[in-house]
């Protein structure tokens, strides 16, 4: 038995102090953003489809009950059949890679030898939302900011219900993080970086008023009133064209209240 990874608290994975440490010295990397990949000691593994789906599910959800895993991965069969499919997949996983999954009595989780790219994204987003100050280590802060701007899609080409749910959850996390970064950079007078972060949020969701709002705030803070008005009018026209509605009065006041344009 292997020890479970502390993967990240955000993904709901705890430790298993009663489990044994892995003994082979292997390390594993699971990529979930911009496509799935499972690597052992830096070398890609040709894993069967069921194994890839299992590793992806546990990589996203962390420690999870067997019943939840089987129900999500094999939703169209009976519970008994789904549990049998899970056992078969675990056997196939052991033929592919020996140590990435901790098998408990009722749960499965990632081992301590597994790194998941999604963990770094979640950690960066949490730091952005917790308003981590720039401090002396601006390099770390810039890393967080850039990691939010350039994020790949979660498991592109996968359309399982659980993937669609997690993809939207992570998209919302990214949007909120970008908005928080833009507002903080604006307050610090870093106008170019603030506009970049706000534009990234608008590109991700053009009809999201809160994203447009932080972009307008960034433009106004730099005294670029024309840019702010242009941004508002583009949003107004697109919103009316696609949804038949107009921006809120709050956004209108933010844009025009002081200038009277």
The proportion of strand residues reads 5-15%
Global geometry = elongated
Class per helix and strand makeup? alpha+beta
Number of domains as seen in the coordinates: 2
Q: What is the CATH superfamily of the largest domain?
A: Tetratricopeptide repeat domain
Question: What fold name stands as the CATH topology of the largest domain?
Answer: Serine Threonine Protein Phosphatase 5, Tetratricopeptide repeat
Q: What is the CATH class of the largest domain?
A: Mainly Alpha
Strand order of the largest sheet: 3-2-1-7
Note the total helix count.
10
CATH architecture of the largest domain: Alpha Horseshoe
Number of strands: 7
Low-pLDDT regions: 1-21
Q: SSE string, helix = H, strand = E?
A: EEEHEHHEEEHHHHHHH
- In round numbers, the mean pLDDT is 87
For the largest beta-sheet, the strand count, sense and barrel status come to: 4 strands, mixed
Rg calc: 22 Å
Query: Roughly how many Å apart are the termini?
Result: 68 Å
What would a concise description of this structure say?
The protein is α+β, with helices and mostly antiparallel strands and 261 residues long.
Summarize the structure in words:
The structure is a single chain. With 261 residues, the chain is α+β, with helices and mostly antiparallel strands. The protein folds into 2 domains: 9-116, Winged helix-like DNA-binding domain superfamily/Winged helix DNA-binding domain (Arc Repressor Mutant, subunit A), CATH 1.10.10.10; 131-256, Serine Threonine Protein Phosphatase 5, Tetratricopeptide repeat (Alpha Horseshoe). Helix content is 56%, strand content 8%. The chain is built from 10 helices and 7 strands. The chain has helices at residues 49-61, 66-73, 79-96, 117-129, 138-149, 161-187, 191-204, 209-221, 225-243, 249-256; strands spanning 28-31, 37-40, 43-44, 64-65, 101-103, 107-110, 114-116. A 4-stranded mixed beta sheet has the order 3-2-1-7. A 3-stranded antiparallel beta sheet has the order 4-6-5. β5 and β6 form a beta hairpin. It is elongated.
């Amino acid at each position: 038995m292997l020890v479970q990874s502390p993967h990240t608290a955000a993904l709901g994975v705890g430790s298993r102090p009663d489990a044994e440490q892995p003994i082979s010295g292997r390390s594993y990397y699971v990529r979930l953003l911009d496509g799935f990949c499972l690597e052992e000691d830096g070398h890609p593994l040709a894993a069967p489809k069921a194994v890839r789906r299992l590793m992806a599910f546990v990589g996203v959800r962390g420690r999870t009950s067997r019943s939840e895993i089987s129900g999500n991965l094999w939703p169209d069969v009976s519970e008994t059949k789904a549990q049998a499919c899970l056992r078969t997949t675990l056997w196939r996983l052991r033929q592919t890679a020996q140590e990435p999954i901790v098998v408990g009595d009722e749960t499965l989780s990632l081992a301590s030898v597994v790194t998941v790219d999604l963990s770094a994204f979640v950690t960066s987003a949490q730091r952005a939302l917790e308003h981590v100050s720039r401090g002396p280590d601006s390099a770390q802060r810039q890393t967080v900011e850039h990691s939010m701007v350039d994020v790949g899609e979660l498991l592109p080409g996968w359309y399982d219900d659980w993937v669609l749910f997690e993809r939207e959850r992570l998209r919302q996390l990214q949007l909120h993080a970008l908005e928080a970064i833009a507002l903080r950079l604006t307050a610090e007078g870093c106008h170019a970086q603030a506009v970049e972060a706000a534009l990234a949020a608008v590109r991700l969701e053009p009809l999201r008023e809160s994203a447009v709002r932080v972009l307008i705030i960034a433009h106004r803070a730099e005294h670029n009133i024309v840019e702010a008005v242009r941004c508002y009018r583009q949003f107004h026209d697109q919103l009316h064209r696609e949804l038949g509605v107009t921006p809120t009065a709050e956004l209108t006041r933010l844009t025009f209240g002081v200038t009277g344009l």
